[in-house]
Amino acid sequence: MTNIESRPKVGEIPTQSMSYPGKQADMIPQPDSDLSNYKPAGKLKDKVAIITGGDSGIGRAVAIAFAMEGADVAIMYNQSDDDAYTTRQMVETHQRQCLVIKGDVRSKQQCQEAISQIIEQFGKLNILVNNAAFQQSHQKFEEVSEEEIRRTFETNIFGYMFMAQAALPHLTEGDVIINTGSTTAVLGHPTLIPYSATKGAIHVFTKSLAVNLAERKIRVNAVVPGPVWTPAIPASSPPEALKSWGNIAALGRSGQPEELAPAYVFLASNDGSFVTGSLLEVSGGLISVE
């Protein structure tokens, strides 16, 4: 169990770099994502969930939290095989099943195939967590390529829509969709412009879909993280940027994945039964974008 007070503060994360999307096992320090501080209460007993981007970071923490709460989970990921299988092992230590699906959410067909695998394996689906994301940092916006803009939008918002369309025929009253937004959609970000734009789209998509599905009693919400220590950070940021990572948070540090996971549990469970169209910020308190 990691002591909360010992989590690295601003300036305590060493400079490092890795190729995108990065491997959680290579990060220094290791993200806190094993849910060792979490106390489950059976809130998702016998539910079935799929989490995109579930191989590492926030997605891994959510998968473990859901398993601890009694759900079987599927994780969909695109590249990091080792991270994905580590997540499966961590889920299985809590005596729940974990279906590992390698695929690309940019493909509507692959999203549909992923949902079909879940129905074949578990016979149902109750929770969709759209969490897969792509980001790259640039000091000059004019240097962002057309290919990168398209990849960012196709991953971060097209993929969310494709997954929702594939899942909805299997969701019924009381089931939920949870999207991962970002505080960059609230304040903007000077070096993550395409990413921030997609996160703004995710926020509006969340609210619009929530209204659309309200009559069917399917709830749609988003968790809105601030700075969180995940593989995407050293894999997409200049090494020197890590010296100040987390400085936009009033609490003086970046968040850890396991600190985000309980928000997803809340929105997925009956605790959030009267919550839809909500953007639940978990940011450590925003103070600036620098």
Structure, explained:
With 290 residues, this protein is of the alpha/beta class. The chain has a single domain (4-282), classed as NAD(P)-binding Rossmann-like Domain (Rossmann fold, 3-Layer(aba) Sandwich). The protein is 36% helix and 12% strand. It has eight helices and seven strands, in the order E-H-E-H-E-H-E-H-E-H-H-E-H-H-E. Strands 3-2-1-4-5-6-7 form a seven-stranded parallel β-sheet, with helices on both faces. Helix 1 runs parallel beside helix 2 (81-92), helix 1 crosses helix 8 and helix 3 (108-122) packs parallel to helix 4 (146-167).
- The helix count comes to 8
Spatial sequence of strands, sheet with the most strands: 3-2-1-4-5-6-7
CATH superfamily membership: NAD(P)-binding Rossmann-like Domain
The beta-strand count equals 7
Q: What is the fold named in CATH at topology level?
A: Rossmann fold
SSE string? EHEHEHEHEHHEHHE
Please tell me how large the radius of gyration is: 18 Å
Q: What percent of the residues sit in helical stretches (DSSP H or I)?
A: 25-40%
Structure classification: alpha/beta
The CATH class name reads: Alpha Beta
What is the end-to-end distance? 31 Å
Describe the protein's topology:
Blueprint lengths: L47 E5 L4 H12 L3 E6 L3 H12 L5 E5 L5 H15 L4 E4 L15 H22 L8 E5 L3 H4 L5 H21 L5 E7 L6 H5 L20 H12 L10 E4 L8
Parallel strand pairs: 1-2, 1-4, 2-3, 4-5, 5-6, 6-7
Helix pairs in contact: 1-2, 1-8, 3-4, 4-6
